[in-house]
Amino acid sequence: MRVLITAAGSHGDVAPYTGLGARLRAAGHEVALATHESFAPLVRGAGLGFRPLPADTRASGAVAGRRELMRAAGAFVRDLGAGLADAVDDGDELLVLSTTTAPPGWQLAEALDVPTIGAYLQPAHPTGEFAPVVSGARSLGRWGNRALGRFSLRMVDRVYADAVRDLRTRLGLPAAPLADVRARQERAAWPVLHGFSPAVVPRPADWRAGLDVVGNWWPYHDPDERLPPRVEDFLTSGPPPVFVGFGSMAAGEGECLGELAVAALRRAGLRGVLQSGRAGLAASGDDVLAVGELPHTLLFPRMAAVVHHAGAGTTAAGLRAGVPAVPVPVTADQPFWAARLTALGAAPAPLPFRALTAERLADALIHAVHEPACASAAMAVSRSMAAEDGAGRVLKAVERLGRA
Which of 18, 31, 105, 117 gives 220 a disulfide partner, CB atoms 3.0 to 4.6 angstroms apart? Predict the structure, then answer.
């Protein structure tokens, strides 16, 4: 079967789909991944076909205020919708859609008469069990959580309204509000497989049939890849260090963050590995090592703890490695995952990014590294994850669709 996976956003929004695509390819399917040009090496390195999408969140500057944010998001998805229409090939037999690409993807599937399946990295459907993951809100009770979840979907539909209108016109489809298209998908019990562990977020009991939590699919990793010699030398020269990294967050704040992280590590009496990321984290000294992009699957199991922004992928990678975390959420779904880490017992209370100080980070590190319950909780989740096969579950769903 010819399968097109579509994903958009930051590195953490795209990288897991390389592993998913590689699993489908290994089963004999012809797989391409449509995403931003900056991720082309990542996609091709996994042995997948690459198809470019024009919009790239890394190219957008900071926006201030809700109105500006809505305008920026609308422009992003408008470009995204047009790019998806260009990326789809007449020979594609199945579209695998991420949370971000699903609304325009539904229009393409309708026009081309091809099946689709959702492959989401976050829970996006309303539930009474927790507030919407991108709202940053604490639980409002069952009724309040569901109401806020429905309101959040209406806001999403507003952001995509122009993109969907333009796309339906281009495809020769009759005009239809996205809310109507979404309702049609829900009535048909459109299948969505969620790529996170049920040990971290159990499937909500009030979700409809067709919404399943299957376990993570992990970024593709070359089995022959090894850590660079200088990293190996540092790791073996002393006790396990602490990883500090903020992924695609905090652009341009690297110098300040690096100084803060080093001060916290030394205050806590710990060594550290600082990953530069988009922030450009930097540090020097015998007890710290600055690194570029390295596979978390190789690095995290060698750490005493991981300090990170609590993105979905980094959160999962730390738990998979069975090491405690110190979550420092910045935006979007990060407060949700940070709160889950704390609720699981694998991390102390989250440290909001804008309130981060060396003293607070040092105290949290001392708790995470020296409190045995943190490591025990992380290891318990790691054992559960090891028994899951999220990519395999998606493969089975894809092949069921192929036989339909």
Answer: 18
Tokens (6 digits) for 30: 């012809």
Class of domain 2-216+388-403: alpha beta
373 CB burial (10 A radius; 0-12, 13-18, 19+): exposed
**Would you give the distance in Å from CA 88 to the centre of its chain?**
23
Q: In 3-state terms, what secondary structure has residue 96?
A: strand
Coil, helix or strand at residue 147 = helix
Q: Which two tokens stand for residue 57?
A: 């969140």
The topology under which CATH files domain 229-386 is Rossmann fold (3.40.50)
CATH 3.40.50.2000 positions along the chain are 2-216+388-403, 229-386
Q: Give 10-residue mean pLDDT values along the chain (404 residues).
A: 94 94 97 96 97 69 50 79 92 95 96 96 96 85 95 93 94 96 96 97 97 96 92 96 82 73 94 83 83 92 95 94 95 90 96 90 96 96 97 95 75
Placement of tokens 């998001």 in the chain: 73
d(CA 311, CA 61): 20
- DSSP string spanning 22-91? HHHHHTT-EEEEEEEGGGHHHHHHTT-EEEEES--GGG-----SHHHHHHHHHHHHHHHHHHHHHH--TT
Transcribe 232-256 into DSSP letters: HHHHHTSS--EEE--TT-STT-HHH
